[in-house]
Amino acid sequence: MDVAHGSGSAAVDRLRRSITGTVVVPDDAEYDEMRHVWNGMIERHPIAIVRAASTDDIVPVLRISRELGLRLAIRGGGHGVAGTGTVDDGIVLDLGILRRVEVDPDTRLVRVEPGATLADVDRATESFGLAVPIGVVSGTGIAGLTLGGGVGWLTRAFGLTIDNLRGASVITATGDHLAASAVENADLFWGLRGGGGNFGVVSSFTFRAHPHGPEVFAGTFIYELPRWSEALRAFAVWAQDAPPAITSLITFMVPPPAWELGDRVLMFLGFAWAGADHVRAADVVATLRNAAKPDVEVLEPMRWLAWQSAFDDLLPKGVRAYWKNASFARLDDGLIATLVEQAGAQTWYGTAADLHHMGGEFGSVAEDATPFPNRSAQYWLNIYGFWGDAADDPARVAWVRGFGAATTSHAMTGQYVNFLGDEGPRADARQQALLAYGPAKFERLMALKRRYDPDNLLRLNHNIPPG
Ligand code: FAD
Q1: Which end of the chain is more exposed for a tag (fewer CB within 10 A), N or C?
Q2: Distance CA 224, CA 369 (A)
Q3: What sign does the dihedral 248-252-257-262 (CA atoms) show?
């Protein structure tokens, strides 16, 4: 498309007349920064980036994109791994300025605007001794995280982020304002809890928060490679009886130089306790320590906000990223051998694998209650990258792919869309969505898509085709 003439310039003129926010175009100084998203492998050149000044700017952007037949990317925090928060020759609707978070300490309900980051949510709730279960890197956007699912340090205690979503305000592709909750447009509410941004632009989310913090019991056990098998076997036994209040996340990686732990691959067994009973937490962690004595232990009083941003430095905007994931019923000897072989091969800094311990509240939600796949999974593996040099792309992508392929014989069906990278233009998006959700949920999501976005205006996402 010729962006200087035709529908490109028409779009810019109409946008400028219709919205109160800013329209950033290629000649503007901030264009280059703003066209980029978190994943540095994604290079796109939009016609215009609309920085919405209020949610009133959403409808005109939807209308103009639709009428001019332009591709439309919706951006919250810009951390979408597949890079769908930007687009070539189309319009980006950037909601990143809209970051207000309102906490009602009496009802424990938290209303969040769509550009808020996880840090915004944690900061607002922490002062009331509350927390919403969200992800583990504070710059991530609440919008994309929630619409995909939301896995983090409170998953076993309180469920996914979507399990704590009480309602949302949605503007559909045709500009209708709808409330979505268990009692209003319940079908749409179902779709929002895992179906991504397929059904409309969410202009606010309302979550239930839980008493938590500000001081938390959280820490990390570190293991050298020769001890991984023994430690993982002990962990698997401990995890079977671990109370839901504790969520563990095991990371296999070469640590960053700033951590001063050396440049060999290590296993970091992190854990966080939900709630105030730190005496009980210490007992539970002591049983793990006795079963699998760590080579190094880091366990000290910690503020929830500090813990929630402890890994931010690993994953700054602009790193290059390709991700894959898989879920498992158990951490058995076969899976342990695969993890040790694949993750243990990392001699470089810039990739990692996270093994999330699931179950608990996550597993108590009925399978058909949300589109999120596979509530019976006990473990979820995210294999990911955060390297800096484009020359490393082939080798790092190949490592993620190879690791993913090696786990397939152990894996259950279902993939978490927020932990999926960009498979490129040749990938079959329909097949990917089918694999992620499974046939029954995929059919139900397609029916919702036909109802709320039959022309697939909102297709820059893990797309559910209307038919
Ligand atoms: P964006 O790129 O802005 O949005 C992603 C997609 O969401 C958009 O393309 C659009 O389709 C849709 N979207 C965004 N806003 C709206 C809206 N208002 N209305 C409708 N659709 C919208 N996930 C976890 O579960 N737990 C984690 O701990 C975790 N950690 C992460 C750490 C990093 C460093 C990164 C990069 C990702 C992490 N993720 C995690 C994955 C994360 O949940 C997804 O990448 C998510 O999509 C990011 O949301 P965003 O708003 O920042 O992204």
Answers
A1: C
A2: 41
A3: positive
- β-strand pairing of 379-385 with 324-328: antiparallel
**Residue 4 clears pLDDT 50, i.e. is over it:** no
Q: Are 217 and 278 in contact (CB under 8 A)?
A: yes
Residue 246 near residue 272 (C-beta atoms within 8 A): yes
Q: Is pLDDT above 80 for 163?
A: yes
* Encoded tokens for 310: 């402890």
Whole-number Å distance between alpha carbons of 82 and 84: 6
Task: Report the percentage of the chain scoring pLDDT > 70.
Answer: 99
Q: Find the 300 Cα to ligand 1 centroid distance in Å.
A: 30
Question: Which among 202, 208, 193, 199 has a CA at the least distance from the CA of 372?
Answer: 193
Q: What angle do helix axes 393-407 and 333-343 make, rounded to 10 degrees? A: 170
Could you tell me whether strands 215-216 and 302-303 are parallel, antiparallel, or unpaired per DSSP bridges?
A: antiparallel
How many angstroms separate the alpha carbon of residue 152 from the centre of ligand 1? 13
Phi first, then psi: give them for residue 144, nearest 5 degrees: -65, -40
Query: Closest Cα to atom 36, ligand 1: which residue?
Result: 79
Q: What is the pLDDT of residues 45-75, one digit of tens each?
A: 999 999 999 999 999 999 999 999 999 999 9
Rounded to the nearest 5 degrees, what angle is found at the Cα of 385, between the Cα atoms of 315 and 410? 130
Which residue's C-alpha comes closest to atom 7 of ligand 1?
A: 144
